[in-house]
C-alpha cells in the first residue's frame, strides 16, 4: 500500500514542477506580439473582374466534313466471286470437346496400348499425364477422330480448312515413341 502512496506523491511533485515552469515571465513573447501588431498590414486584393460571355456562332457547318472521303464515283471493285462448293465436310460445332483436343497432335506421344474390352491407346499429354483413348475418340486441334489403334500407331481422320470457305479430310497418324 505504501507504494501506491509513493506513486501519488510522485505525480503531485512532478505536476507542481511542470506548472512552476509555466509561470515564468514571457517578456520575449510579449515583445514579438507587439512588433507584429505594430507592422502595417497588407491589404487584401479584391476579386478580379470576370469578362462577360461572348456568344460564338459556328460558321463552318456548311463546309466539307474532314472525316468523310471526298473521292466520289469510284468504280466498284469487282471481286472474282468463287463458287462455293459444299462437300458436306465440316466440323461438328455441337459436339463437346475432349481433353486431348486442346493439344497440338505433334505435342502428344503414343506410349503404349492396353487390351481390355477395347484396344486402348495410352497417350501422354505435354504435362506428362497419360490418357486412354479408343476408336471413335477425338484428339488434336483439327477435329482428329481415331479410326484405328494398333500396337505401334494411332490412325486419325482430321478435318482441316481448305484455305477458302470449306473443309477437307486429311489422314494423320501418331506413332509410338521408343524409349531406350
Description:
The protein has 180 residues and is of the alpha+beta class. The protein has a domain at 99-174: SH3 type barrels, CATH 2.30.30. It is 18% helix and 24% strand. The chain is built from 2 helices and 7 strands; from the N terminus they run H-H-E-E-E-E-E-E-E. It has helices spanning 2-22, 27-38; strands spanning 109-115, 119-124, 130-133, 138-139, 144-149, 153-161, 167-175. The strands form 2 sheets. A 4-stranded antiparallel beta sheet has the order 4-5-6-7, with no helix packed on it. Strands 1-2-3 form a 3-stranded antiparallel beta sheet, with no helix packed on it. Strand 4 and strand 5 (144-149) form a beta hairpin. The longest helix is centred in the N-terminal third of the chain and has 21 residues, at 2-22. The model has no long low-confidence stretch (mean pLDDT 83).
Note the topology.
Blueprint lengths: L1 H21 L4 H12 L70 E7 L3 E6 L5 E4 L4 E2 L4 E6 L3 E9 L5 E9 L5
Antiparallel strand pairs: 1-2, 2-3, 4-5, 5-6, 6-7
CATH A-level architecture of the domain at 99-174: Roll
The rough form would be described as flat
CATH topology heading of the domain at 99-174: SH3 type barrels
> What percent of residues are in strands?
15-25%
Distance between the termini: 90 Å
Overall average pLDDT: 83
Tally of DSSP β-strands? 7
Major sheet details: 4 strands, antiparallel
Spatial ordering of strands, largest sheet: 4-5-6-7
By secondary-structure content and strand pairing, the structural class works out as: alpha+beta
Q: Using only CA atoms, what is the Rg?
A: 46 Å
Q: Low-confidence runs (pLDDT<50, min 5 residues)?
A: none
Helix content: 10-25%
CATH class of the domain at 99-174: Mainly Beta
- Along the chain, the helix and strand elements come as HHEEEEEEE
Number of helices: 2
